[in-house]
Structure formats: C-alpha cells, structure tokens
Design goal:
- By secondary structure, the chain is α/β, with parallel strands linked by helices.
- The protein has 17 helices and 13 strands.
- β8 and β9 form a beta hairpin.
- α2 packs across α17, α8 packs across α15 and α15 crosses α16.
- It is globular and about 60 Å long.
- The two termini are about 35 Å apart.
C-alpha cells in the first residue's frame, strides 16, 4: 500500500494546505481521516481570511491532532472456551467545549483511521448542537453479530476493564454506534459501575429508560435526519408530505428515520443490510422490520419473505431505486459517484446523511452541482448526540422528561442546527452549501473557545 500524497487530493488554500500536508505525513495510512480533514479544511479557509488570529494561534495544527489516543487489547473467552483477542480504541479529540462525547462502534471494519475520522467529525457535530460537549469516538473490531448474549457480555466487560479509567461524566461520555445498542450499553455500563464503585448515570448515554436513559434517545438520530430534511425543504416552500423516501441500512438510525418519515406524510420504500436491499412500494412495515432486526437479528431477505408487497435484491445498490428524498443511514462511503448519478437521474430532491460521511466526496460534489439539497452528517445526524446531551442533563438533575417534551427539544435543536449552517453559508458567500455552512459554524465555535483557553 502506497501512502497518499498531496497530489491525490484537490489543492487547498495556502493557509490550510501545510496543515493537511502534515496530517498526511503523520498519519499516512488513514484514508477516512484524510477525507474528513480535507473536507473541513477546504470549507473553513474563508474563515481564516477574516480571522488571522486563528492562524497565529495555531488553531488548525492543534485541531487535527487528537488530545489523546487510547489503543488497547481486549481478551475474552468465547462459548467454546477459546481465547479471543480484539483491539479497542478511544480517540479523545477535543474537550474545549465540554467532556469528550461520542459513540462506540463494534464492527470488523473498525481501525484507527475510521475512529479518528469519526472523532474529528464529532468535534464539529457536537459544537453545532450548542450543548457544551467535546468530540471523541471509540470502538473495537469485535463483531457482535452471531455472538451469544454471554459472549457479548464477556467482551463488553473486558473492554470496559481497560476503558473505564479514561471515562467519567466530566471527562468522557460514550454512547452507542454501529454494533452497540441497548444490550451492549447495558453490559458496558454495568461493568463501569462495578469496577469504579460509582453509579454515574451521566457518564454513558443511550441507557435503558428504566435506569437513567432518556426518552427519544433511541429514535433521535433517525428522527433528526428527517427533521433536517424537512427544514431544508421548508426553505424552498416544500415538505416531506407525499414524498417517496429511500433509506439505507436497517439498524437504529434507519428504523427511526423510516418511522419519522411516515409520521410526516412521506413513504419510506427501502431498507438494506450487507446482503442486499428490499423495496416495498407500499411503504416499509416498521413493526416487521423491527421484529427481524431488533429481536430475531435476521437478514433483510426475511422481510421480503414475509411481506408480499416487497422484493429483495441481492447485492446491488439501494440507490438504484427512484426516490424523492435519500437518507443514507448505513455506514461511511456507501454512496458512490455512480450511486449519486443514479439518484440524480431519477429526480432526487434532497439527501440527508443519517450515517457519518456516507457519501464519497465525488458524490457530494455531484449532488451540489445538480442542485440537490445536501445535508452532511455532522449537521443532519447530530440529533443523536444532541439528545445524549439532554440525557446527561436529566441525569445530572435527577429529572425525567416525557417523550413529547424530549422530541420537541430535539426538533428545536435540529432547526437551530439548520439555521446555523444555512446562515454561515450565506455569510461566507456560498448560499445553500450546507457542507461549508456546517463546517464553518462548528469551527467558529470551537476555534473561539480554543483561542480563549490558551495553548492547551
């Protein structure tokens, strides 16, 4: 494998190019991290022209380097009595606005590059929420699929036996991500409580509602991505009502994006997993999908086997299906340039990223050139972490809010994030560019705090 060079990327403005060159040199085999950093540096170059103090203060040089990188082994015993060893990560990227905040991902694809890209994105996403939380991310190359509950518990306990020493409600507050749902969070929190002898409800979010969790936290990322799409359409006098929506994935984000789209008058017609996708022109049956994915942990083909109006397509791309609105909700870089071109040809009106960086840069560029409304993940899927911060607030005050109250707060936060990104794009001469707007709005908040707090 050849390390990438500057020539492999579009050139950046002179004020930011040296910073990116340093990232390539220090982290030569981390393509996802390079992609995330390049996008942000490209967007914020105009800000530096107006604020040379950020250059003088070395804001960028510090921003692209994590405050702390934690890498550790996770030994555990499977049900056959055999020793297994996985690798654990926690990247504590920036605490300038508050304790590190970001999920844990358990998936075979997890490596340092992916965790660093997710942690870097989390800095700006969390800043956009206005909730006083910093950016971090973690996880492991452990695959919970096909594992028994006992195996998942033993892995989670071993994982937390190391990570606990780096966490705390005023230090670092993890949550779930791909492969980490209610089951995993329960085991992780239980082990943290055991080894610390403290019941710090506020140091883990996404907990069960019966033991410190917040209403709407489970639904928040999917709901938020749909709320953001509604906000974008509203600027142009349109809405989700009557729209046909394409959604990828079949996990937590996808399920609740499907639910909220239906509640707002749209029809979600697709869902997918690594084996292929289903199309249901009658609208995805949410109860069936949840039964298959959350209870039976079955493959998506079973949906078509039990639903006469649906058909299963093995492999292929879910983005071949004609839709008005697309909500990529599976994983990073799932939407290729060819996928974007197919969506555009079929008349897609808006794209709202439910996952983190699911569209490759060429796809984003194609959407923008075609006039498709495009919401980047750091803005569109910020509802999850925003509601996590609300969960932290409830834990700190020993309060519980109703589902309706929590959903209203989420809707307000997503509206505020949309306004911040929209207005930042307008101020810097790129109206309608939500990628630039979200990066600029998040960066301005982080950079001002870094400058105020000195060289840390």
């Amino acid at each position: 494998m050849t390390a990438p060079t500057t020539a492999d990327f579009h050139p950046l403005a002179p004020a930011v190019q040296p910073v990116f060159d340093t990232v390539l040199t220090r982290s030569p085999y981390e393509p996802e991290f390079h992609q995330a950093v390049h996008e942000v540096l490209h967007s914020i170059a105009p800000v530096l022209e107006r604020h040379p103090e950020y250059i003088d203060g070395g804001i960028l040089e510090r921003l692209v380097e994590p405050e702390r990188q934690i890498l550790f082994r996770v030994p555990w015993i499977d049900d056959s009595g055999k020793l297994q060893v996985n690798r654990g990560y926690r990247i504590q990227f920036s605490s300038v606005l508050g304790p590190y905040k970001g999920g844990l991902r358990f998936h075979p694809s997890v490596n340092l590059s992916i965790i660093k890209f997710l942690g870097f994105e989390q800095i700006f996403k969390n800043a956009l929420t206005g909730q006083g939380i910093g950016g971090g991310k973690g996880g492991s190359d452990f695959d919970p699929h096909g594992k028994s509950d006992a195996e998942v518990m033993r892995f989670c306990q071993s994982f937390m036996n190391e990570l606990y020493r780096h966490l705390g409600e005023h230090t670092d507050v993890p949550a779930g991500d791909i492969g980490v749902g209610g089951r995993e969070i329960g085991y992780l929190f239980g082990q943290y409580r055991k080894v610390t002898n403290r019941h710090e409800s506020g140091m883990f979010t996404g907990k069960g509602t019966g033991w410190g969790g917040a209403e709407v936290r489970t639904e928040a990322t999917g709901y938020g991505a749909v709320f953001f799409a509604q906000e974008m359409l509203g600027v142009h006098g349109d809405s989700l009502a009557g729209k046909r929506v394409g959604i990828s994935g079949s996990g937590n984000v996808a399920i609740y994006a499907i639910q909220k789209a239906a509640q707002l008058g749209a029809t979600a017609v697709t869902a997918s997993d690594s084996s292929g996708y289903v199309v249901d022109d009658a609208g995805i049956d949410l109860d069936l999908l949840r039964q298959l994915k959350e209870v039976e942990r079955a493959r998506i083909v079973e949906y078509a086997n039990r639903r006469p109006s649906a058909r299963f397509v093995e492999g292929g791309s879910v983005w071949e299906v004609p839709v008005d609105i697309a909500v990529p909700s599976a994983t990073q870089n799932e939407v290729s340039l060819a996928d974007a071109e197919a969506l555009i040809a079929n008349g897609v009106r808006a794209v709202s990223e439910g996952a983190n960086m699911p569209c490759v840069p060429e796809a984003v560029e194609a959407f923008q050139k075609a006039g498709v409304l495009f919401a980047p993940g750091k803005a569109a899927n910020a509802g999850g972490v925003a509601t996590s911060a609300l969960e932290m607030s409830q834990n700190a005050s020993r309060q519980r809010w109703t589902f309706g109250d929590s959903e209203n707060k989420l809707r307000e936060i997503m509206s505020d994030i949309h306004s911040a990104a929209f207005e930042a794009a307008e101020r810097h001469g790129v109206p309608g560019d939500y990628v630039a707007g979200a990066n600029i709005a998040g960066f301005e908040r982080v950079a001002a705090a870094m400058l105020a707090q000195g060289v840390i």
